[in-house]
Amino acid sequence: MNKPQQDPSSFQLLTPPDGLFLGLSTMWGIGRFQTLEGFFQAAEQLGFQRFELNHGVTPPMLLGLEGKCITSVHEPCPADPSVEELGRLDFLISSLDPSKRAQGIAAVKRSIDLASRLGASLVILHPGRVNMDPSYETTLRDLYEKGRQNSEEYQLILVAYRDHRRRSARPHLAAVKESLGELGEYASKKGIRLGLENRFYYHEIPTPEELSELLDATPSEWVGFWYDVGHGEVLHRLGLIRRDEWGTGFRDRMVGVHLHDVEGIRDHRPAGQGSMNWEEILSHLPPNLTVTCEFQSTFSGEEIRKATWFLQSHYANYLQGAST
User: Fold this and answer.
1) Whole-structure pTM value
2) CA 202 → CA 188, 198, 294, distances in Å?
3) Which CATH superfamily, name and number, covers 8-130+169-322?
């Protein structure tokens, strides 16, 4: 690996002929700035010119977006209702209750409408969940944090969790498949493509097998795969899904990527400030992706600057080739 040559305090994002290849999610701004105007000003000072609206953006925050390059929208955006409320009410596209599933579909359509108005081309979609006992994952994560991931107790829970999820998933997957048929057609008429994101929790949809089934059931012009590298890393470390199943298995349907680092099983850290194997992960990226940094708002502007410097100092050859 080459040593960095540039002082991060004076760092500006590289600008290849086809445009900036790193965008920034508003995740970094939620709670840090009172308005998105403050977020955009700080992000632009760091060199960012492309942005993703995340599911923390409320309706009042949507004012003042004129002239901003919004490449993607992460549903539900605007957050009315919030992602937490949608989950609590089971207003999800995976719901087995038709009326609740309809509410989940409506929330995604609002995000599609917003993306269309803003000129974005992608909506990132959480495909719902398998409703099941949450204690499996809670216990696994607690044991991992205590350094007991190699214990017999951990392995027994891991096997039971996988089995329970497998036996419970089919009806929810069928609901997602039906929802995607409606949503994909709706989005395509507005020039929007949906990106199904791999998730942070194992009970959430999809697993790699489920993603393959969902992508096979939908036209590639309608629906693709949005790769979240941190989510993939966390489930790999927990022993639930190997990270390479995402990067290598769905390269031909990948439409975008969220970049953030992981320490232990805590994600959304600035790149280079965790313990991920970035070369292994980024080497799998295909060309023509929307590449977005997704960092928590608890990190300073200087930490964000160092993260972008880290990515482009070490991995510009991968990222420039991957970006649109």
Assistant:
1) 0.92
2) 29, 10, 20
3) Divalent-metal-dependent TIM barrel enzymes (3.20.20.150)
